[in-house]
Model the fold of this input.
Amino acid sequence: MKRICFLILLIAICSCGAGDDGGNLSIGDGSGGVGISGSLAGFAVVDDFLYVLANDGMSVLDISEVNPTLINRIPIQSDAETIYRYGENLLLGTRQGMIIYDISIRSSPRYMAEINHQTACDPVVAIDSIAYVTTRSGQTCNNIWAPNQMIVVNLSNLSAPEELKQIQMINPRGLGFWEDKLFVCEGDFGLKVFDIVDRSSPEYVQIYDDIAANDVIVIDGTLIVTGSEGIWQFSILSEGLELLSQIR
Done:
């Protein structure tokens, strides 16, 4: 129980100071397994280990006991902002690109490879050997001229990720997927839905332009969206999204 309270406290701390975007959205599963987090989260829980991004590195903490213990510190030259767990790996979204770390040895993340892009904010998610990376412009991203796009990356060879295509966006932020649907937040411009039956070639389906979407979490067919106007909960249906609740 104390471990769960610690994770809740960490979530609250990491969500503060996020400005008008509505903060990061993260949920600890409380089971000793994998924590569920949005693509903008700066930390990840895997088994009894917590990985946290701060300043110019990634800290590894053992959270198997009541008092978390710092057991490793991995220097990272790029401005790392987000962490996404992909199998036995962590995908780090940085302002210069995506970095891949092997965490098969939980306490000792091992650098594998990276793929670079123009300086921009950079969350990432991945499924079936394909990663989706959004980059956006803005003063908070250190480049007001950065391209607003979604980059599709082939992860078949984790030691040599390959960019497959770029899809023009408006001002993309967090993203997530459920089955053959990919949800991409466009801030005040709405929430976009893509068909990813062909994982390597997302096809635009529609946009919910009445939702100021910053990040998403998908849990068992339920989509949770956070944004500047609150938090929405939707049921994901074959024909679209059904609103279940909203907190303003």
User: Anything to note?
Assistant: DSSP finds one helix and 22 strands in the chain. Confidence is low (pLDDT under 50) at residues 1-35. The longest strand covers residues 230-237.
